[in-house]
Amino acid sequence: MTYQQLHTFLTNQIRMSHIYQPVMLKRIFLNDGSASVNEIAKDLLSYDQSQIEYYEDRTKNMVGKVLTNNRNITLKDGDQYLIDGFDRLSVIEKQELIKFCDELIEEYLAKRKQTLYDHRRISSDYVPGSLRYQVLSQAEGRCELWRSPRMRKPSTSTILSQNQKAGLTTLLIFKPSATPATVKNGTLMTRTFGRW
User: Fold this and answer.
1) 127 vs 158: which has the higher pLDDT
2) CA nearest 123: which of 74, 182, 169, 175?
3) What is the pTM of this model?
4) Does residue 111 sit in the same domain as residue 141?
5) Residues 98-130: pLDDT tens digits?
6) Residue 74 counted as domain residue
7) Is residue 152 part of a domain?
8) Residue 121 lies in a domain
């Protein structure tokens, strides 16, 4: 592709419903014409504020509490974590400590690489976007759970469930008075969608 072709695409032809295309192209440009799926995915992730917020929460409520309250390694000042006296360490000491952290991370990942984030791969509350769209469009502007614009007693409830091992998503529709506990007495309609 020539500069002019790429310029024309970016300035006149691109149709965006999200930032994916320019993020991917930017990574390819930065890498002199090629980029791996992993590199592109990391760049996309860097724009995902929900993931940043997720890890801010993990930092404050998990690892930050452990290192600050339980282990007394760090101090907290506003939204900053610090190590008292770190400025008095030599450059070599700091590099050694960073090296120890890298080794601990690599060792842990080597032991648990296949299972480290498996709990997040097919989450029980994840609903594929195309299935979410289908449910919302069929609901005609009403809450699919309550079938009304406001929260009222349900006449129909719709539950999206995941079969984690098979990677299938099932749309379960329980008719009046049916709940997951009493579904044997009610009417249950299911539709299983393929892998997403």
Assistant:
1) 127
2) 169
3) 0.53
4) no
5) 999 999 999 998 888 767 776 666 555 555 566
6) no
7) yes
8) no
Of 138, 182, 191, nearest to 160 (Cα)? 191
pLDDT digits (tens, 9 = 90+) for 5-39: 999 999 999 999 899 999 999 999 999 899 999 99
3-state secondary structure the chain: CCHHHHHHHHHHHCCCCCCHHHHHHHHHHHCCCCCCHHHHHHHHHHCCHHHHHHHHHHHHHHHHHHHHHHCCCCEEECCEEECCCHHHCCHHHHHHHHHHHHHHHHHHHHHHCCCCCHHHHCCCCCCCHHHHHHHHHHCCCCCCCCCCCCCCCCCCEEEEEEECCCCEEEEEEECCCCCCCCHHHCCEEEEEECCC
Check if the beta carbon of residue 174 is closer than 8 Å to that of residue 188.
Answer: yes
Domain that holds residue 176: 129-193
The domain boundary residue, chosen from 116, 138, 158: 116
Same domain, 157 and 179: yes
Q: What is the mean pLDDT of residues 153-177?
A: 48
| Higher pLDDT, residue 63 or 114 | 63
